[in-house]
Amino acid sequence: MRHDHVISAKQLSRADIEAVLDRAAEIDRDPGAFADTHAGKLLALCFFEPSTRTKMSFDTSIKRLGGDAVDMGPVESSSVEKGESLADTMRVVEGYADGIVLRHPSEGAAKLASEFVDVPVINAGDGAGQHPTQTLLDLYTIRENAGLDDITVGIMGDLKYGRTVHSLAAALTNFDVRQHFISPESLRLPRNIRFDLHESGADVHEHRNVEAVLDTLDVLYVTRIQRERFPDENEYRKVAGEYNIDAALLESAKDDLTVMHPLPRVDEIAPDVDATDHANYFEQAHNGVPVRMALLDELL
Ligand code: NCD
After folding, report:
1. CATH code where residue 20 lies
2. Which one of the listed residues 41, 53, 63, 207 is annotated catalytic?
3. What angle do CA 96, 97, 98 make, to 5 degrees?
4. Catalytic site residue from 38, 54, 141, 224
């Protein structure tokens, strides 16, 4: 990869993406071959927002490469509570580690951090902005299940605040993918993202109901309504629970439809889907390790 920092999926070309996915596939086949390739490297984990998968899979990935991680720990027990700026925290952490993984509630935080430090900054989610490493593992999962060209992908749920959606939609424009966006009117893709998609010449459609396109889809990517980003709890309640995928609904889907979700799920996918051949979200989460190992291998 030609980049020092991984801030947005928009910076990733098809060649960048394929290089990471190919390397991840190599790691998946023989993880032991990479066991000591990054001995002595330290990765800083700075999470200013909750995380299970992203943080643990970065931690696992650097350790599986022979390196180690240092964790800033909960925000409440860090100097942020004393009023330290993000720029200062980043300048301090840069002296401790060879790379920084940053998750932050403010859009643009990772970009800002990258302007203050020389070690690679990896955006692990910036508010409702971007989540490019989730996108790499999403693309890996799509490629394994459906291939990445001449496919139809439905992306459903909170398209307004969902950063995994914003990153995935941008990255898919590198491939021959028909994109169907399914959401309530109030949670449509933001205007600037729709603009970017149209500018890129992507084949993009919007719907209110998944039934309109379900039988054409190769992949259905379901997302959680991002409750924590709603300025008004009443607005959240209006749309909460509106979308629900269950096994009965999927009877009208293609037999080889792949259902994905970045997780955590709340009630968007009923537990009865888990036992169907469509369910792929746990494998998707597991793919976070080989993909992040491949990314760290390129960056560090
Ligand atoms: C996502 C996130 O943090 O944006 N989680 C993740 O990293 N897998 C999705 C979400 O929180 O809904």
Report:
1. 3.40.50.1370
2. 53
3. 145
4. 54
